[in-house]
Each structure stands twice: as C-alpha cells, then as structure tokens.
Amino acid sequence: MTVSTILYDDRTTAGLSADVDGDHLWLTPAELQQATGWKLEPEGLCRGDACVRLDTGWQDAQGRVDLAAFARYMGQPVVREDAAGAWAFGESVNARRDQLFSLEAPDFTLPDLDGKLHSLSDFRGKKVFLFSWGSY
Length: 136
Hints:
The protein has 136 residues and is α+β, with helices and mostly antiparallel strands. It has a domain at 5-95. It is 18% helix and 30% strand. The strands form four sheets. Strands 2-1-10-9 form a four-stranded mixed β-sheet. The longest helix has 10 residues, at 93-102. It is elongated.
C-alpha cells in the first residue's frame, strides 16, 4: 500500500511509499527521516540531541521502522484514514503536559485594524489583555 500523506509535527509529507500492516506503518529509514526528522543511528532513533533506543519490535528484517509503534511508545496519538492513505501523529502527552504546567500561551501572530502584524512573543514578560469576539 502507498501512504499518500504523513502529518508529523509541522511537517506534511506526501507521496511516500510505505507498508501498512494493521496498526503498523513501515517506513524506510530515509522516508522516516524525511517525514519526521528522526534518523536511524547506531544509538537508536535520534532527532537533534535526543536519542531513543530502538525497540526490537520497531524494526523489521528489511531495516524498515514502524513509525506507528514508535509514536505510541513516545505517547503520541496516532490517527489514520485508510481511504485517503493518510496518517497523522499528534504531540506527545509529555510535551502537552509540560506546556500546560508552564502556563505559557503558544505564540501566534494576528493583524491589528491597520493590518500591522503583532505576535504574542513580542510582549513576553509584559501583561497582555486578549479580547476576542465571534458572531456564532
């Protein structure tokens, strides 16, 4: 089967050839790195300074890596749409928990009435009053 789209973090990778076996998504190491940024190294799967020891169930005899099993181990929710051949991987539970405990709002950029863009990060360390309105 060919997976048309993988959504991982802020990446959208289309047209990858991957094997789907039930809840398993098998990618070559090159496809894994392209879609996720995780690289197969002797230490395991590495991304930046972080490395995760490769579990025996994550790699097959052909050297492919089961991205779905790795994501589940990392606490990432996995959703797939078989008809479209799409797989989406959410942020890990630990990362979401850390964001909530930090009490820091995610950054965003919006225009003012004159069209000038303002980012929340421009006001870090200052008190900010946000007002939103909708006519639902």
